[in-house]
Amino acid sequence: MDGFGIQDILDIAIVALMLFYLYKIMKESGTINIFFGVLAFIVVWVFTSQILEMKLLGTILDKFMSIGLLVLVILFQDQIKRFLVDLGDHKKWRFLKKIFQHSHGDDDYDSRKYVLPIVYACMNMSKTKTGALIVIEQRISLENYEKSGDMIDADINSRLIENIFFKNSPLHDGAMIIAHDRIKSAGCILPVSHDRNIPRSLGLRHRSALGISQATDAFAIVVSEETGFISVAHKGILSTRISSTDLEHRLSDALNQQ
Question: Is 250 exposed, middle or buried (0-12, 13-18, 19+ CB in 10 A)?
Answer without folding.
Answer: middle
